[in-house]
Design a protein that fits this description.
Elements: E1 2-3, E2 40-53, E3 58-72, E4 78-92, E5 95-112, E6 115-126, E7 131-147, E8 151-166, E9 173-187, E10 192-203, E11 211-224, E12 227-238, E13 248-259
Antiparallel strand pairs: 1-4, 2-3, 2-13, 3-4, 4-5, 5-6, 6-7, 7-8, 8-9, 9-10, 10-11, 11-12, 12-13
Length: 260
């Protein structure tokens, strides 16, 4: 019988930081206006369960913490900082059969007319996907393509340098890659919202064969003040995984969140 082991992630980040639920930060600028006295820290904690398939087929306990911070940056334009972390853990008969940790740090600076530049750092550890440590450092540019009172669509294009250390005897790798990102959010009504995130990474040395794709789609419901329930699906595809590992991993999550 499966035992679910709770896990608490402790995160500390200096004020250079990111995450990224950047859509949770209300923009206080338009195409011509400067930022108005804006300082806002928003935090979120989530607990739930995730069913995984692919390299693991388990029911996991999940924990997540993220924050966003908004202030005035270069040329009095908005500066967004965010940090996102998560953990997924399960045990079966006292044997751990899934364990994954993720963290994402991002700094996003508005340039003008809905354009922004960003810097980011990502980290992943999952021995069941053969990653002892997977780190990516990125930089790029993006644009809020569409934004109104309820919907937002943003696109980003950049480059990253990646470091991959494996749990088996596979030699460590480091490589440069092209990255693309799409994020769409829709406030469906007063109590529910929809979100979609798509990401891609292509190794410059083997563009057509060595690439990764990711997708996250979910719906979030407000159930009380500062309390919410999310249902989410996540797909990760690695076109060139380590020998003996699956290309596709999925998660189906249900989680209870608290915003403060």
């Amino acid at each position: 019988m499966k035992k679910l082991l709770p896990f608490i992630v402790l995160s500390s980040v200096s004020i250079y930081a990111d995450a990224v639920k950047l859509t949770d930060v209300e923009a206080k600028y338009n195409a011509t206006a400067k930022v108005e006295a804006s300082k806002a820290l928003k935090q979120h904690i989530g607990l739930g369960f995730a069913n995984t398939t692919g390299n693991t087929d388990t029911l996991n306990f999940s924990f997540e913490y993220d924050f966003t911070y908004t202030t005035v940056g270069i040329n009095d334009q908005e500066l967004k900082v965010a940090f996102d972390s998560s953990a997924y853990i399960s045990e079966n008969d006292d044997v751990r059969d899934n364990e994954e940790y993720k963290a994402w740090l991002r700094l996003e600076q508005v340039i003008s007319n809905d354009w922004f530049g960003y810097m980011s750092a990502r980290w992943l550890k999952n021995e069941f996907r053969n990653y002892d440590s997977k780190t990516g450092l990125g930089i790029g540019i993006g644009k809020d393509v569409y934004k109104d009172a309820t919907q937002e669509l943003k696109l980003a294009l950049g480059v990253s340098y990646n470091f991959e250390q494996y749990t088996d005897n596979t030699p460590d790798e480091d490589f440069a890659a092209l990255t693309q990102y799409l994020q769409y959010t829709n406030e469906l009504n007063d109590i529910s919202s929809l979100y979609l995130k798509l990401g891609a990474l292509e190794n410059f040395e083997d563009f057509s064969n060595d690439y990764e794709l990711s997708m996250v789609a979910g719906v979030k419901f407000a159930i009380a003040q500062s309390l919410n329930l999310s249902i989410e699906a996540e797909i990760d595809y690695d076109a060139l995984p380590s020998d003996g590992y699956d290309k596709t991993d999925t998660k189906t999550l249900i989680k209870l969140g608290y915003d403060f």
